[in-house]
Amino acid sequence: xxxxxxxxxxxxxxxxxxxxxxxxxxxxxxxxxxxxxxxxxxxxxxxxxxxxxxxxxxxxxxxxxxxxxxxxxxxxxxxxxxxxxxxxxxxxxxxxxxxxxxxxxxxxxxxxxxxxxxxxxxxxxxxxxxxxxxxxxxxxxxxxxxxxxxxxxxxxxxxxxxxxxxxxxxxxxxx
Length: 175
Known about the structure:
Elements: H1 3-15, E1 20-23, H2 24-31, E2 40-44, H3 50-60, E3 63-69, E4 78-84, E5 93-96, E6 111-115, E7 118-122, H4 125-135, H5 138-150, H6 157-166, H7 171-174
Helix pairs in contact: 4-5, 4-6
């Protein structure tokens, strides 16, 4: 993904008035340890017909954009996979269309970050830890541990404890 392509994606979010945050490996790098990642992940508040509109908007901007809806068992409400129509080597973007049981207010608690030359909202470290715990894979839990270690003393531990309790987890289950 280059600066110009990212600008097109950000413009689509803005034009459709879609709240979003940078998440995934790039957000982990902002709050925890840098690790390799094969894509750029955004979490967006997209429901119903808006998902199709966003995918169409991205196709109009020159991308390959494939909407993958989810079923009731999937914690993710759906994903739009965005790829360059020109370069197969370009880093793809996954736009997660919401996550069941994600904390309320994640878009409001985001912080601005310079990313590929653009000001982009990045998910808060506390909310990222919660999302990583919801995902629950080995890499996800390692990401959560790295954020806890690097952000020690800077996290809102009360908020984090409340949100982890809502998903039936605790800090002891991460560390």
